[in-house]
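Re: that chain you flagged

S.,

Sorry for the slow reply, it's been a week of failed gels. I finally had a moment to sit down with the sequence you sent. For the record, here it is as I used it:
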Amino acid sequence: MISSVFRKCGVLTLILMIVTSCSSRLPNSAVLDQISLEQSRQSKHSPKEALARAEKDIEKARKEALEFYAPLHLSQAEQSLKKAQSLFVKGTDMISAVAETIKVEKMVSEGLTTKNTVLRQMKDVFEQKVRLEQLKSDVIMRDDFEDQMDNIKDLIVLIEQGDQPGFEKEKKSTMTEMLELEKTVVKKKTLAEALEVLQSAKKADAKKLCPKTWKTAEATLQQSTVFIESYPRDDEGVKKAGLDALRACQHALFVAKETQVLQDTDKDDFENVVLDMESKLDRIALGLNHPDVRHMSLHDQSVTLSKAAETLSRNLVVTTRKETTPKEVEKTNPIPPAGTLEIETQVSAIDTLKEPEAAKITEEAVEPQAIPVKKPDETIDVTEEPHTTKSVSEPEVTDSVDEKHEKSKEDLETIKADLNKIEQNL
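Prediction finished late last night. Pasting the structure tokens below so you have them in one place:
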């Protein structure tokens, strides 16, 4: 009885020791061996069933990628499985075989716990890893990328071992290196072509042939580099910075080449150089369908063709704005309901008259809503004086008095006739 109590106390002590060990993420093999052996004696599973369960545990661990998230735990679990299989084949010590399967179960369980801890404590590290993968860092700077992957594995091991201070220190260092790698990769991707062109300009002696353009190219490249280092995730800004650098370097290269051509030109061929410039401007004139401008100076030719291009551009914009589809017109100018179109036409006609005529017409005009509705057996006196309306102010009159008078009489007669038609329709 007493021995049984001591044995139970010993088991509890061993369990407490293994729990403490697992919490540090560094398995204690000696303690684990002892507690697994004690549990194997009380196991209700046959050795064959225990072995099958252990194999499923290893399969689950691999599906959960514990070789990455908890490599120490998985390694020990695999070793225990191999030992259990060997003992099962020999058939000499089934209790030890079952004990090894229990160790597999415990290591896999602790490995899954470790994985959750890794995912929580290294969330920002993994996000940075994804960023580097999106930038194709593993292709552009393979060795540097692999170094960072090794750093990540080292951090996971520190978590497994329970070395939190060491983990925090190494994590900070790793994040710094990964961020620097990101900047380097973005710069390399964005500025590679510009740097190549600048190197070609250097070989073309651009620094000596066109020092102003060369300095501009270098300054632009430097500005783009600073921007990318400061805002590596500003995709639009990075794209523009790269294009600015490329254009500046291309300018230096071609100015150097053109300058070299001029320096190599014999003074007897200067006329051909000027004619070649005119030919280039003439091609632009042909493209704009502009008359020949070669009778002007080169400066005036460029100014004239520039103004012609601006005019053409403005005309195209105006034409594009005027071209609207019937549906768009219908949306912006909906068709008025039936019966209102003629009334609105009369009001519009009055509004468009000059100021003196409007004053005469408004004395005789009839508001549409004031026209009486014709009832059965009733007639409407179309000569009845209409209600008056307020006069409308109009633009200044420029026609002669007689012409205005004749015009107003004609307009008045037309409006009266239209109003009569409206009354008949009503």
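What I noticed first: The chain is about 75% helix and 0% strand.

Talk soon,
D.
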